[in-house]
Amino acid sequence: MSWKAYIDSLKAEKGVGEGAIFGSVGGVLSLWASSPGFIPTVEEVTPFTKSENELRSKSVFLAGEKYIMLRYEPEETKNDMVSVQLKKTKKDGDDHAYSASVFKTTKNTLIIARAHKDGTGPDVAAAARKQGLYLDSTGY
């Protein structure tokens, strides 16, 4: 399956409007796929590969938009897998502050899900986690 197909699968989940996948090969993080118009940078997502304290000490941005971190949850079975839930700090023109979630696998693959207008934080967190657990089980 192509990485674009993984984005399409992520967007088919309840509440998800956009997504991106970053991977680490040889310790170098890069963008593997993203939704059109939602393109976080490597610099923006690198803090998600660090510790909770390092992440909390920085402003969090995705695709140029600032978010606040609401929750940092290590996976129960593997502490090096983490789910981070975010909320956009500034409302869009439609008066909506979108939620987002980042799931980090054991290999530092990052799955990013951003809600559509009616999506919720728990929706996007569940979608990113589901895809993250699958990719982790396949070696990513």
**Number of separate strands:** 7
Cα shape: globular
Ranges where pLDDT stays below 50 over 5 or more residues in a row are none
Terminal CA distance reads 13 Å
Helix content: 25-40%
Main sheet specs: 7 strands, antiparallel
**How many structural domains does the protein architecture include?**
1
How big is the Rg? 14 Å
Helix and strand content put the structural class at: alpha+beta
CATH homologous superfamily descriptor: Dynein light chain 2a, cytoplasmic
Question: What order do the helices and strands follow?
Answer: HEEHHEEEEEH
Mean pLDDT: 89
Give the second-level CATH assignment, the architecture: 2-Layer Sandwich
Tally of individual helices: 4
Identify the CATH class.
Answer: Alpha Beta
CATH topology value: Beta-Lactamase
Description:
The chain is an alpha+beta fold and 140 residues long. The protein has a single domain, classed as Dynein light chain 2a, cytoplasmic (Beta-Lactamase, 2-Layer Sandwich). Helices cover 25% and strands 35% of the residues. The chain contains four helices and seven strands. The chain has a seven-stranded antiparallel β-sheet with strand order 2-1-7-6-5-4-3. A hairpin with a 7-residue loop joins β4 (65-74) and β5 (82-88). The chain starts with a helix and ends with a helix. The relative contact order is 0.20.
